[in-house]
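[step 3/7] fold_predict: job queued, chain A
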Amino acid sequence: MSKPPIILWFRQDLRLSDNPALHAAHAAGHPIIPLYILDDENAKEWKMGAASRVWLHHALTALNKDLSEHLVIQKGDAAKIIPDLIKKTNASGVYWNRCYEPWRIARDKKIKTDLEDQNIDVQSFNGSLLWEPWTIKNQSGQPYKVFTPYYRKGCLQASPPREPLPRPPRLNYGNNTNLSISLNDLNLLPVKERKWDETLVQHWNISENGAQKRLSDFLNDGLQNYKKGRDHPADENTSRLSPYLHFGQLSPNQAWYAAQERGTAEGWESDR
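[step 4/7] structure written:
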């Protein structure tokens, strides 16, 4: 008898490699129903701006392709959409990687409580941070308030971040028939009369593969001159990884260990 599906809720982790929630669902042997929800209702004044929406459109296009067109897309209140999808799919659980904005934390806690009251398996993971806030504290047991001691006395003295997880070799998908709206229904792109987004898209490969290539290019060509070159954004010595990290097409763990490996290979000094 086959296992019931697990809803894999993508948020700011739009990648298949080093995705702890995906890795856990796959390891458990459940078919997955990949889900993305544009939840402007809970975000309210914190909802994404126009440039971020353009990036999201293309990031979801790439993710859906990597998921063999199985991504379920929804728009609205996640606290209502997820229980509805559980009923439609008979899913036994919902897995996600944690987000840390206050509005997301409040929403996610409510969703988790409501689902657990219905005996739904809810699991969340750290897929976005090298160290979560509550793991790094000063000698008094309180959070650091200044970055330099937080980094040098806190992070660099802590256990190393977990190593990146591999991309699952083959995914088993649950039935997603009639569960999704189209990506265009999210209305993420500007109106046709205004094509300012075309310039943005021409200069970026908005995909997980694009993130990996940008990281490799920076480590090969930009990192050694970063200390001085970072003051000149037009040059190739800035990483240009920020949007990939923000949308989770690249994890900080991947960047951390790739830099560590390159430093070891080149004989660079390391802070650790």
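[step 5/7] annotate
The first strand starts at residue 6 and ends at 10.
The two ends are 49 Å apart (CA to CA).
exit 0
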